[in-house]
């Protein structure tokens, strides 16, 4: 079997399920594939995401609610890059992902694309949105 590389998102505030459902709502060809939850007496908060798999535009991702508190979180040096098909799609994603988050680069023409924007969403995950 060939190797497979999957992006893995670790949430520390019990946000994994909310984030996953939010992302799935934004993209076509997106779905929650599987969710395993912490049960009674397990290390994580009961009912929170022990491990989940979801797809966005055919690409598989995994996420968890970490049972252990870490001194690190998401950083923009690792981001999800989305090639958009239209100005409307770019604007919709930029607005939705930026709500409650932080704009790193506002939507504009930066010379390397027609239109580009970079945001951290409200969960801290970084997104680069591009219209070639």
TrEMBL record:
InterPro entries referenced in this protein's UniProt entry, alphabetically: 3_dmu_93_MTrfase (IPR009725), Glyas_Bleomycin-R_OHBP_Dase (IPR029068), MTase_demethylubiq_bac (IPR027259), PhnB-like (IPR028973)
Residues spanning the signal sequence: none
Short name of any one Pfam family annotated for the protein: 3-dmu-9_3-mt
SUPFAM superfamilies noted in UniProt: Glyoxalase/Bleomycin resistance protein/Dihydroxybiphenyl dioxygenase (SSF54593)
Superkingdom to which the source organism belongs: Bacteria
Residue span, PhnB-like domain: 3-129
Protein name per UniProt: VOC family protein
Species for this entry: Nonomuraea antimicrobica
């Amino acid at each position: 079997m060939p190797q497979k590389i999957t992006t893995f998102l670790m949430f520390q505030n019990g946000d994994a399920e909310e984030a996953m459902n939010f992302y799935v709502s934004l993209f076509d060809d997106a779905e929650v594939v599987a969710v395993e939850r912490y049960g009674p007496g397990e290390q994580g908060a009961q009912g929170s995401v022990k491990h989940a798999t979801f797809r966005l535009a055919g690409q598989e991702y995994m996420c968890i609610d970490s049972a252990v508190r870490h001194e690190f979180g998401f950083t923009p040096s690792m981001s999800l890059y989305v090639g958009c098909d239209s100005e409307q799609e770019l604007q919709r994603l930029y607005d939705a992902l930026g709500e409650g988050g932080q704009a790193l680069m506002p939507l504009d023409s930066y010379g390397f694309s027609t239109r580009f924007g970079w945001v951290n969403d409200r969960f801290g995950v970084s997104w680069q949105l591009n219209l070639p």
